[in-house]
Design goal:
The chain is α+β, with helices and mostly antiparallel strands and 417 residues long. 31% of the residues lie in helices and 17% in strands. It has a five-stranded antiparallel β-sheet with strand order 2-1-3-4-5. Strands 11-10-15-14 form a four-stranded antiparallel β-sheet, with no helix packed on it. It has a two-stranded antiparallel ribbon with strand order 6-7. Strand 3 and strand 4 form a beta hairpin. Helix 7 crosses helix 8. It is elongated and about 95 Å long.
């Protein structure tokens, strides 16, 4: 009995040790939470150098996986582990606050804890702007001018787009489409096309995503800068077009617009059915094309009459959809006016649109035959794109000048359903 009493401890600490082991993770969590809300490096963030318009690639490894932005110098680095480029940059340069560009979480490196602070919400919004239905409804009614960090003012939606090299022919279309209301409103909300399930490596759907990001940055009233760089959108264009349209080479705007509208239609899973995508709903109209093939020249009227009886030379009608209408300007005047100067003629828009009234025939030559065609509009889209075709003189390197008078436009649509 005495031996048993000696072996028995005076105080049993087993329960206290278990309680300590259970409380240690909780204490660590509390410490982590306190550090997350009281990061001592938040005052080192430099918003003036932050630029999220460029491709999200690590500046060292050029990888797009797990990329973090240094909020002190603005550079992109991969990872946050001890062997990562972000960790090395943090130790070498004494830069500690980073933003994960994928999940929008802030971290302190090399301490490796998440930073939670309401003062960082503006950085999130610049990287990934979001719009609600109510905020979109106020875009066109608000005349409020925004102010960038450097003090310059800008109007949301009318910001300048950087001309990286020779991409100005793209920028004019981005600006124009950003002000077509149903088209713009659709792309301002990512939820409208997030449900689409693209195939792996679908470059056309990436084009849709990049255009949505560009529109949201253009209409962001809290940008850090008064201009936007379309770098990611232009990169998506180069990849989706297989280098047909490039940043470093000047392109044809009408050709690019044709490709862009059809590519967006396909990227949004549009079909031949009318109204199957927002591109079709906004810009697509239809017309009847009446075409007849001209018979070969002959002096015998009987032979000509016999040829015209053939099925090959009879008039055929085809319903054709369109995204824009091409207008032909008349040839410029050859002679000067009484003041010995080349005057600028005026052409009513209705006169140019008379090409599509279904009565005027025009000759079209191809490598195999000559056809006479008439165009008859049957349905106008909500937003009609008009392309003015200009014939440049070969012996005088200048563009012919015309004033197009926009009067009585609705009369041109008479008869359209």
């Amino acid at each position: 009995m005495e031996d048993n009493k000696r072996k028995r401890p005076l105080v049993d600490f087993s329960e206290d040790e278990e309680e300590d082991e259970e409380q240690q993770p909780r204490k660590k969590q509390v410490v982590r939470a306190d550090m997350a809300r009281s990061c001592p490096y938040l005052d080192t963030i430099n918003r003036h150098v932050l630029d999220f318009d460029f491709e999200k690639l690590c500046s060292v490894s050029l990888s797009h996986l797990n990329v973090y932005a240094c909020l002190i110098c603005g550079k992109y680095f991969q990872g946050r582990g001890k062997s990562s480029h972000a960790y090395t940059h943090s130790v070498q340069m004494d830069h500690h606050v980073y933003l994960n560009l994928a999940n929008l979480e802030f971290y302190c490196i090399p301490d490796n804890y998440q930073v939670i602070d309401a003062s960082l919400e503006d950085i999130k919004f610049v990287l990934r702007p979001t719009f609600t239905q109510d905020s979109i409804a106020l875009l066109d009614s608000s005349s409020k001018v925004s102010r960038a960090l450097d003090g310059t003012t800008y109007q949301p939606g009318i910001q300048g787009l950087n001309n990286i090299k020779n991409n100005d022919y793209m920028n004019v279309l981005f600006h124009a489409f950003a002000h077509v209301l149903p088209f713009r409103n659709y792309f301002l909300r990512e939820e409208n096309f997030a449900h689409l399930k693209p195939k792996s490596g679908d470059r056309l759907f990436a084009l849709v995503q990049r255009l949505g990001e560009l529109f949201r940055k253009l209409w962001n009233p809290w940008n850090f800068k008064s201009h936007v760089s379309p770098h990611e959108m232009c990169q998506a264009v180069v990849l989706a077009s297989k280098k047909r349209f490039q940043i470093t080479k000047q392109g044809e705007t009408v050709e690019f617009m044709t490709w862009l509208l059809h590519s967006l239609h396909q990227g949004l899973k549009g079909t031949a059915k009318e109204g199957s995508s927002v591109t079709s709903q906004t810009f697509q109209g239809s017309m009847n094309v009446h075409s007849r093939k001209l018979p070969p020249m002959t002096e015998n009227p009987e032979e000509l009459r016999r040829l015209l009886q053939h099925e090959e030379y009879k008039t055929t009608t085809q319903k054709v959809p369109f995204f824009f209408l091409t207008l032909d300007l008349p040839p410029p005047p050859l002679f000067k006016d009484e003041f010995d100067a080349n005057f600028i003629p005026q052409v009513p828009l209705v006169e140019l649109l008379s090409k599509f009234d279904g009565t005027q025939e025009k000759e079209y030559k191809s490598y195999k035959d000559i056809r006479m065609k008439r165009f008859e509009l049957t349905k106008l889209p909500p937003y009609l794109i008009l392309v003015v075709k200009v014939i440049i003189s070969t012996w005088r390197l200048h563009w012919p000048s015309f004033f197009i008078v926009f009067i009585n436009f609705l009369s041109a649509a008479k008869g359209c359903h």
